[in-house]
Amino acid sequence: MFCDQCGAQLQSGEQRCGRCGKTVLGLVELRRNRVREHIRLVGIFWMAYSALHVVAGLVLIVVAQTIFGRVIHIPNGPPPEVSVWLRPLLTFFGWLILAKAAAAFIAGWGLLQRQEWARIVALVVGFVALLNVPIGTALGIYTLWVLLPRNPMTSTKR
Ligand SMILES: [Zn+2]
Fold this sequence. Notes:
The chain has 158 residues and is mainly alpha-helical. 65% of the residues lie in helices and 0% in strands.
């Protein structure tokens, strides 16, 4: 084995490099660190994904309630027969997107807090997100790749 900082050869079982003094990480610890870093990233991405959904959901609801709610008068705006079914439809989808934002936030927050339940929540929202091409699909695949093979919450706990 060699020091990953200065490259000096290490005696087996050595805790500290004799040349540069760097604490020697075993292979298991290096792998753990890498998994931990991936989980942190997945958590951050879910928070960002949640924020995007909050914006999209709110925009949809505001549009539904104003333009299609005939609060704002727009010349050549949508005719009433369109607004009558488009307003509740857009409002419904707006709330649906906000619900997804909440689920994504819970998953991301839980992962960053290293909660064990967060793995299941993230896997569920990850599967659902696969349908949202392209961002959701990318995030879903990354989430499944990091969290599916094992339970990193327990395997990285000391
Ligand atoms: Zn060294």
